[in-house]
Design a protein that fits this description.
The chain has 18 helices and eight strands. The protein is α/β, with parallel strands linked by helices and 527 residues long. The strands form two sheets. A four-stranded antiparallel sheet has the order 2-1-4-5, with no helix packed on it. Strands 3-8-7-6 form a four-stranded parallel sheet, with helices on both faces. Helix 1 runs antiparallel to helix 10. It is elongated.
Amino acid sequence: MTTPMRRNTLPRLLTRARKPLFARLIANAGLQAVLAFAVAWSTREALQGMRTGSVPWVDVAAIGAAGIAIYLLKVLEAGDAEHFGQRYVASVRQRLLKRLTRVDGTRADVLGSFGLTMTRLTHDLNSLRNWIALGVARGGVAAVSVSGIGLTIGLVAPQLLVVYCTWVAGVLGVGFAVSRHLAVRVRAARAQRGRLATLVGRLVLHARTARLLGRAGRDLKRIRKRSTSLRQALGNRTRYAQALRLLPTASMPLAYAGLIAFGAHTPVESLVAVLLMFSLAATALAQLTRAMDYRVNFIEGRRRVQTLLSAPRVTEPAHTLPLPDSGALSVRMPAFVDPASGEQQNLTVEAGTTRVLPAELCDFLFPALVRLQRDTSTGIYISEQPLSRLAIDTVTRRVHWLSEHVPLIDGDPHANLRYADGSDADIAAALALCGLQADTDGTDVRHWHGARQARLRLARALIVRPGLLLVDDPHLRQQPELAALLRRAIEEMRCTAIIASSTDFQLITDRHSENAHTNRRTADART
């Protein structure tokens, strides 16, 4: 009997698929240590042979061949380490996707939410990749290299091994001390970045409203203030990170001073070989100190990813309420301040009706209805249920936002429509109604122009068949042909529709119908 996989934690580092790759990295490190020993030994032998006045060509060739081999092994090491890190991050992404899309007994549109979550976690996943690829993988290789170089020095000049061990221990000890101060600066920089991103995101959603109310200047001042704080936090973080990363190189003069002090009775050729080993060790130690930097960022990124994996899929208030599984939904906002006039207003959209509202009002209303932001200024009711009490999954399933801000996914039209659990017949009917039946040749819809993408978004709404449709696509509300198509689609879905428009949507569709009727009469007269 197998034990079920724990999906609420980060994946294990060494799985059956990743163990061979990690073993190859360790073998690479061992081979580099052997070649470093060959370089040191051949260097000592070559310098001893030069005392006779002849060139030791065999030792010179051995040094050159070992150097080229070390170079090729380091290139292979970099590729394997990156592959190792990317495999791990891919498994984290898959576990996040399974976590975010596990909705018991319901069908939810999760692609948009997953894309938004992945965007927010990009920095955290990159921190995981850096730690696994450059910290664990290449750091492990560096640790083997440092140990192998120490063994080489012990064989070539045993009396200098104490200098090497003292230098390595000092670099690592100071590095750990600096990394503790770096962790404080990393947390501060992350906090400032999060505050700025939240502020900018909120202000972008209310850009037009802020301009109408004369608050744009104040909002820009707040952004500049947050940007200054972020810039200072990032500067402090960079200074400590560089102090950690440059530690092995900056400490090399101290190491040379120790070699001179303890190597007074060491043969010159052995001392030169040890100096070469110290240079190779400085490169390996630099990888270890960088690994400390990556570990600090990894700890912070792991905290957010782990929270997402272990916490409930969505945070719901107590005693949430559902929406009807079918039928049109009504919307009511009993008291709000109109951003255009500044007067107290009330809004009621009856179930099954189509209502055109000012775009300034929809800047607030639409994000609140799809639960992208909280309704803090006024009460909003859907089918006489307070929006704040509705379950997020039921709102996601029954309310559809038709907007340019909701991205299309990679692939052809069918790939963008299948995720809504529509049958092949439903997809074919939706494509035919939207005039896209000929556009199924497998081309990537991201390369389509705006009007065709608007048709595809409308076809997606036809597959979802929501109870409440929110239309914020300029192509659908301004171009007469597409506006008439939207009108037919709304009649087909029999849903409630709220259209954000600064023009008379009814006048646009009526004018299109009148022009089409005139063109038909002209064609009949010609025949």
